[in-house]
Amino acid sequence: xxxxxxxxxxxxxxxxxxxxxGIELPLEKVDIRGGENRQSEYLxxxxxxxxxxxxxLDSGEHICEITAIxxxxxxKFSGGALIGTTAEExxxxxxxxxxVDLSICEPLASGFRSAEGLKMFQDRIRCIPHAxxxxxxxxxxxxxxxxxxxxxxQFICGDRFSLADxxxxxxxxxxxxxxxxxxxxxxxVKAWFDRVASRESASA
Length: 204
Fold this sequence. Notes:
Blueprint: E1 2-5, H1 9-21, E2 27-29, H2 40-45, E3 54-56, E4 62-64, H3 66-76, H4 87-113, H5 118-121, H6 132-149, H7 163-177, H8 187-197
Parallel strand pairs: 1-2
Antiparallel strand pairs: 1-3, 3-4
């Protein structure tokens, strides 16, 4: 197996997940800035959506989408319990992954693509420049909501570190690098972010 890797936050999620589980796979760099992921070879052989990451299996087939890759790796390799060891834990993790992805990660990324990243993305996907500030505000509003949810919690799923933490951390770290700094008034989110950042896997 190998992971098609790039500089965007999505592959960071899978790399951090792999590091937490002790999984080592070859990485093949995809030149996102140069548009390699939009060339016909990548589109026809790897991911027809033109996105990274993608996990190439030993069979030559590919699994795409960050959470699907994590789910596959969690089932394929032992070690850790990043999605959960019981039906209840897995349900809780998937609930929070969904909430984090739709309410924070997606508007954060859309805000970037429609503003700072517009030059790179405008000829690749539909961008909405006049909505950039609103996308960013939606992410911040939902982070404020999450701040209340994190009171008395070490991680998003309580004392259990999970895929939900990895997903949110990677996108907030990216946001901080592209003009969407973490609002330190959200003290619970800030403390959570620092806890996750201190993990060895965060630098994967």
